[in-house]
Amino acid sequence: MSTNIYPQRRQMLFDTLPVGSLVVVPSGSEQVRNRDTGYSFRAQSDFYYLTGFDEPDSVLILCKTADEQQCRICLRPKNPERETWDGLRLGIDAAPSHLQVDSAHDIGELDKLLADWLANKAYLWLSFEQSSDWTTRLLPIIGQLKRRIRQGVEAPKGIHDLDGLLHEQRLIKDSVAQLGLTQAAQVTVAGHVAAMKATAVGRYEYQVQAALEFECRTQGAARQAFDSIVAGGKNACILHYHENNSLLRDGDLLLIDAGAEIDGYAGDCTHTFPINGKFNKAQAALYDLVLAAQQAAFAVIRPDIPYNLPHQEAVKTLSQGLLDLGLLQGDLNSIIEQESYKPFYMHQTGHWLGCDVHDVGAYKQQGNWRPLQTGMALTVEPGLYIAPDNTTVAEQWRGIGIRIEDSVLVTPTGYTCLTAGLPRKRSEIEAWMQKA
After folding, report:
1. Is 381 marked active-site?
2. What are 306-358's pLDDT values in tens digits?
3. Which of 46, 205, 215, 381 does the annotation list as catalytic?
């Protein structure tokens, strides 16, 4: 990824800040999984978005006064002994040129430095998502500044939420973000293709998961963007199923929801197909209905439509289809108004996508669904889930879970499907599976 993008992104944030601002953006710290074993570290998305730097215990500081803008970073110093055990560190001396910041400082001196940098700043900006960790640290420093009032020192009047500024910036993807999302999407598709090839009756869900994640890693993914869902049969009726340890059975469908992470950007795609390569009659009817709902949602995506319109179109198509199949009874408008479809379709049709798989940015503004804009990225993922113990429907429908999800980028005239490349029509899937 171009290193020039990070100063540009920081300047965009500077441009939205009032004079007298100090911004604190931490990378996060390593977390213990159990005893002396840690979780794999991944920097907080806000921090990585502004720096492209992935070391723990780092903090980006932006200062804006009437006279200047300063971009500073606090990070771990070089330590040959620890680097022998834990890996190389960038270090303080190399950081300014490598990260294109004005100065670099020892993270161990952060509290002292903040006491100096916060003096005479009117606004302290911090992500409220992380405020529980940082207000405990910052409030005593603000208290110190207040006690220096007779020396002419002013303290910030309050802590302000950075999310409203930075997350709105992240919501509109710049050219580098669009490239990262495209690459993550295509590696994700390659992983799904590998998973289809690895699927067979008598194998286990985790074996298919291994094939998918191996392909993603082979193609350069640093990690998966989220825990892969590989759900055979009735397991697909659990939206966030993660055990991935069941036997793949003849006659069942397999639902796979997985995404690769490339350069800090998330892929997200869901594919549902028959384990033995052939849909039965009930599976075929529901699959075609979900695909039709996705196509209905796609048909309205363009700038200036309200965010929830694709969901409304998907709900309308699914509700009519459930009526036609006899799974719902009554009037279509009443079913939609009363949300009678929710036992079968209980989630939204999409979410923002970016550095996080459920990316940042408000969905409503002043109580109204916000309009889509060029550069926004989102998923389109209708589904149907007929619980195995749902006795209100005929037995042939029970235990079927289907979701079809693609990632799209809003363009000036419509959208681009980032995850194009998988067989989606039922006939295409069956032909692909038979050939494979």
Report:
1. yes
2. 999 999 999 999 999 999 999 999 999 999 999 999 999 999 999 999 999 99
3. 381
- What average pLDDT does range 251-264 have in this prediction? 98
Q: Determine the pLDDT at residue 160.
A: 94
Q: Where in the chain is the domain with CATH 3.40.350.10?
A: 5-170
Residue 51 in contact with residue 6, Cβ under 8 Å? yes
Using CA atoms in the order 174, 178, 184, 186, what is the torsion angle rounded to 10 degrees? Answer: -170
Q: Which CATH number fits domain 172-435: 3.40.50.620, 3.40.640.10, 3.90.230.10, 3.40.50.720?
A: 3.90.230.10
Whether residue 132 is predicted with pLDDT greater than 80 in this model: the reply is no
Instruction: Label residue 1 by pLDDT band (50, 70, 90).
Output: low
Name the active-site residue from 76, 167, 311, 403. 403
Say if domain 5-170 classifies as CATH 2.60.40.420.
no
| Catalytic residue status for 358 | yes
How is residue 234 written in tokens? Answer: 């009735």
351 in catalytic set: yes
Beta strands in 234-363 (DSSP E): 253-258, 260-262, 265-266, 269-274
pLDDT of residue 133: 80
pLDDT value of residue 151: 87
Judged by DSSP in three states, 408 sits in strand
Residue 240 annotated among the catalytic residues of the structure: yes
268 is catalytic: yes
Question: Which position among 55, 257, 313, 359 bears the catalytic label?
Answer: 257
Q: How far apart are CA 72 and CA 70, in angstroms?
A: 6
Distance CA 110, CA 140 (A): 13
What does pTM read for this prediction? Answer: 0.96
The 10 Å Cβ neighbour count of residue 245 is: 11
Instruction: Report d(CA 43, CA 53) in Å as an integer.
Output: 8
List 215, 268, 313, 359, catalytic entry = 268
CATH 3.90.230.10 placement within the chain? 172-435
Q: Which of 48, 241, 341, 385 is catalytic?
A: 385
Read off the pLDDT of residues 39-71 as tens digits, 9 standing for 90 and up: 999 999 999 999 999 999 999 999 999 999 999
